[in-house]
Amino acid sequence: MSATEPAAASPGHGAAEAPGSRFRRALTFIRFSHTLFALPFALGAMFVAAGGVPGVGTVGLIILCMVFARTAAMAFNRLADWQLDTRNPRTAGRHKLISYRGGVAMCVASSFGFIVSALFINLLCFRLSPLALALVFFYSVTKHFTSLCHFFLGLALAISPVGAWLAVTGEWALAPFVLACGVAFWVAGFDLIYATQDYEFDRAEGLHSMVVRLGVGRSLKLAQWLHGVMFLFLIAFGRVAGLGAFYYGSLLLVLAALVYEHRVASRRLDIVAINQAFFVSNVFVGGVFVLATLVDVLAK
Fold first, then answer.
1. How many structural domains compose the chain?
2. How many CA atoms lie less than 13 Å away from 227 in the CB half-sphere?
3. The predicted structure's pLDDT at residue 66
4. What is the CA radius of gyration of the chain?
5. 69 closest CA partner among 109, 28, 121
6. CA 26/CA 39 separation, integer angstroms
7. pTM: predicted TM-score of the whole model, two decimal places
8. pLDDT 10s digits, 202-229
């Protein structure tokens, strides 16, 4: 171990830990449940590209790529922020969930799994896989030099519908890029809300974010505008993808979930309340989107 490498975290009291418990700790370390945010948009693009539900093998490989890419990105993020997270009261327990070397192993293994899964999809996806990893890794360092870090996170998740489209068709098209723009603005907006929890810490550490630059109030207002733009891109995606009334009707539910999220954020509730609203509303948005897209595609 080098002098600059963080010490490995112990599972506690030197006692042997069951494999199932270690696995749960690893999933918590990367907030695996948040995979549900980007996955529905990748699946929605997949359904439109295939004109329905593609083969089981294609679906499985797309899901594997999503899981591997996000796991690699989150493990890299935790490693890049290891020292910062130990000083932040909100994240101080993360380094106790898994050792630093364990995080490195998780990042490397997931990156390898992503590239191999892409290879089994098609040659274009395989060739683009290193670029995709570079994009999702890059977000983790942006907070050190730009307040636009939220938009880089949006870009990292926005590549998912484009990747899913290429996995099905092997060809570029306008529809997935329109959806990608919607995802980018959606993610940037909810990341602004999420970042309000770290306003004081980020200021003290000299980190960059729109919240530090604009303050909490104006950042929440900006998040509302970003989600408004996201909503317009969802409408545009329906138009470009040739979706129908069921899809457009479902967008009213998406709008309601976004309004709920912003109302909760504006009340300046505690971290637990914000996290609950953040998770529930965004999972709801993704769930409504993918279900409406599938129903509309199958109804054609």
1. 1
2. 24
3. 93
4. 19
5. 109
6. 20
7. 0.88
8. 888 888 899 999 998 999 999 999 999 9
